Every structure is written in C-alpha cells, then in structure tokens.
Amino acid sequence: MYRSLVGSLFYLTATRPDLMFAASLLSRFMSKPSHLHLGAAKRVLRYVMGSMEHGIRFEKNYKLEAKGCCDSDWAGSVDDMKNTSSYVFSLGSGVISWCSKKQDTIA
C-alpha cells in the first residue's frame, strides 16, 4: 500500500512540482516503511486535498515573464545531517524547471 501511495504521488508531480520533495523523501523508505512513514504519506494526501486548485497551467494571454527561486536547508536530514538544495524556474504561468537534491557532502 505504501509503495502504491508514493508512486501515485510521483505521478502527481507532473502537474504539481510542490509535491516532488515530499514524494522523493518518502521514496527513501520504500524497502522498509514504518507506520510513521505511512502517516507522513497520508499527511501529504491531506495537503493535496486541501490544495486542489494548485498546479501547472499554461494560459494563452498570460504575461510572459521568467522567474526563479532557490533555497537550501542546513542539516535538514536527521539521518545523515546533509543539506538539501532546491530551485524552481517558471516562464509565464507554468513551471519549466525544478530540482530538489540532497547535497553530496556535509557542511
């Protein structure tokens, strides 16, 4: 059930890039999920239900403007104390590129 739920979250990331970090974090525990991981996955589902109006949408008469944002946490992973960096770029009304990646080294 856990694998199916996380797979469905990855399917949603095609139109909901805001779910990518949560889905990738939950996928780290696919081989041996606990009740805590299932609870976290259900919490993400509650977030999805509360934010159904969000998603990627390209509108015809929208002002074409490029925007970008990046962020990083400091030792956000309690498992290995590594940082996670992320960025998102949009063009007009839709996201064109995003990434969320755990850094290779410990800061």
What attributes does this structure have?
about 110 residues; 3 strands
Q: What can you see in these coordinates?
A:
The chain has 107 residues and is of the alpha+beta class. It has 3 helices and 3 strands; from the N terminus they run H-H-H-E-E-E. A 3-stranded antiparallel sheet has the order 1-2-3, with no helix packed on it. Helix 1 runs antiparallel to helix 2 (20-27) and helix 1 (2-12) packs parallel to helix 3 (35-50). The chain is flat and about 45 Å long.
Order of helices and strands: HHHEEE
Largest sheet: 3 strands, antiparallel
Task: Name the structural class.
Answer: alpha+beta
Write down the Rg: 16 Å
Q: What is the rounded distance between the termini?
A: 36 Å
Poorly predicted spans: none
Give the strand tally: 3
Q: Could you give the order of strands across the largest sheet?
A: 1-2-3
What share of residues are in beta strands?
Answer: 15-25%
Overall pLDDT: 84
State the helical fraction: 25-40%
What's the tally of helices?
3
Described by the principal axes of the CA atoms, the overall outline is flat
Write a brief caption for the model:
The protein has 107 residues and is an alpha+beta fold. The protein has helices spanning 2-12, 20-27, 35-50, and strands at 66-72, 84-91, 94-102.
